[in-house]
Design goal:
about 140 residues; alpha+beta; Peptide Deformylase
Length: about 140
C-alpha cells in the first residue's frame, strides 16, 4: 500500500524501534511507497511513512532492496556531500563514507551481511540516519 510521506521533524527525530516478523507488512508498504516516488527518491526509511521501525528500502542501481534492523559494521573513506530528503525541504551538507559494511535481516528474516560502495552506500547511510532520528 502506498502511504503518505511524513514531514513532521519532531516525529522523524524519534529513534526507531527494532523490527520483528510482525512488521513485515510495514516493509512491503515502504517498498510500495518508494516505488511510487521513484522519479524523485532513491531511498526511504519506515518513519517517513509514519512507522517508527528500523526498516529501510532503497534502489541499488535498478534493483529495490529492503533491510530490517540494519547495523553498520564498518565505514571507510569519509567525504563531504550534500543531500536532499523527500520528508524535508532543502539541501544539507553531511559527511558520508565511500565504503560501508552492513548487517541486516532480509524480508525472510534471514541475517545477511554485505559491503556497499559509492551512491548505494550513501543512500543506506542517509536512511539509517533516519532510523536513528538523525535529520539530514
Amino acid at each position: 500500500m502506498i502511504r503518505e510521506i511524513i514531514h513532521d521533524p519532531i516525529f522523524l527525530a524519534i529513534p526507531s524501534q527494532a523490527v520483528t516478523e510482525a512488521d513485515l507488512p510495514v516493509a512491503n508498504d515502504l517498498m510500495d511507497t518508494l516505488a511510487a516516488h521513484r522519479a524523485g527518491c532513491v531511498g526511504m526509511a519506515a518513519n517517513m511513512i509514519g512507522e517508527s521501525k528500523r526498516i529501510i528500502a532503497f534502489f541499488d542501481g535498478e534493483q529495490m532492496m529492503a533491510m530490517l534492523n540494519p547495523r553498520l559494521l564498518m565505514k571507510k573513506d569519509p567525504y563531504e556531500t550534500e543531500e536532499g530528503c523527500l520528508s524535508l525541504s532543502g539541501i544539507r551538507k553531511t559527511t558520508r563514507y565511500q565504503k560501508i559494511q552492513v548487517e541486516y535481516l532480509n524480508l525472510k528474516m534471514q541475517k545477511k551481511q554485505r559491503t556497499f560502495t559509492g551512491f548505494s552506500a550513501q543512500i543506506i547511510q542517509h536512511e539509517m540516519d533516519h532510523c536513528d532520528g538523525i535529520l539530514i
